[in-house]
């Protein structure tokens, strides 16, 4: 049902500084990509086996604004897990009593359908499912 | 300098429930392993490319006790990144002005030398470096 761990997302108070931290340690770090439709700027830190996705707010209604108010230094925002068939995965999690944050999938940062699961139903962790 | 992302550690308020969540979704989940010398019980959730390590406190002086007081539902505690040479990595991070939580390495949950970096110097994220 679940596939690989696609990425760990970190909300940053200082995106450039955190990107520099990983770059200085020799990790492959992408340029900053603005994603206005998602309300974030993103930087990908590629470890080969998986990625860290660094995020900073874009515009006034960023989905990570509230998180950064609570976590002023930044912090780990969510984990993203790949699924072969996202509609089947949504059906399965609902049967398990796990709530999704939206009734339908949205198109995520990688151009693929995604859905977020309620942290209260996933051990306190915001989990994103992404179509492989 | 940095290698693969070895694992994402999640501190759990209900370890069995969170382990069941991943098991029910078809992920390979280990038995619960007590690590008295680290003050935690661990469960490994293996995604193939990387792992989630579920933690719950063991004994009175668990290092995740404070985290769970602040995050009552549980949450993502740290990320662990492999390094080919941990002593060189410690020297490098110190040159970068990044503090380590201990002056020397300790033997971690996998029997290998590890050191933790100060979250304030790593974008708000507790980062564990582990010898490959």
From TrEMBL, chains A, B:
Is Metal-binding found in the keyword set?
yes
- The residue range of the signal peptide is none
> Under which EC number(s) is this enzyme classified?
5.1.99.1
Report the enzyme's class at the first EC level: isomerase
Gene Ontology terms for molecular function: metal ion binding; methylmalonyl-CoA epimerase activity
One of the GO biological process terms:
L-methylmalonyl-CoA metabolic process
What's an example GO cellular component term for this entry? mitochondrion
Q: Which UniProt keywords apply?
A: Cobalt, Isomerase, Metal-binding
CDD domains, alphabetized: MMCE
In terms of NCBIfam families, this protein maps to: metmalonyl_epim
Question: What is the stated purpose of this protein?
Answer: Methylmalonyl-CoA epimerase involved in propionyl-CoA metabolism.
Q: What is this protein called?
A: Methylmalonyl-CoA epimerase, mitochondrial
Q: Name the source organism.
A: Acrobeloides nanus
């Amino acid at each position: 049902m679940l596939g690989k761990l696609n990425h760990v997302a970190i909300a940053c108070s200082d995106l450039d500084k955190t990107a520099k931290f990983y770059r200085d340690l020799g990790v492959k770090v992408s340029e900053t990509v603005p994603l206005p439709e998602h309300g974030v700027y993103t930087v990908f830190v590629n470890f080969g086996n998986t990625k860290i996705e660094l995020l900073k707010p874009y515009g006034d209604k960023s989905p990570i604004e509230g998180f950064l108010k609570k976590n002023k230094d930044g912090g780990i925002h969510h984990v993203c897990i790949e699924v072969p068939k996202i509609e089947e995965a949504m059906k399965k999690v609902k049967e398990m009593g796990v709530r999704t944050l939206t009734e339908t999938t949205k198109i995520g940062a990688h151009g693929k359908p995604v859905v977020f699961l309620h942290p209260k139903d996933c051990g306190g962790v915001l989990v994103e499912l992404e179509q492989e």
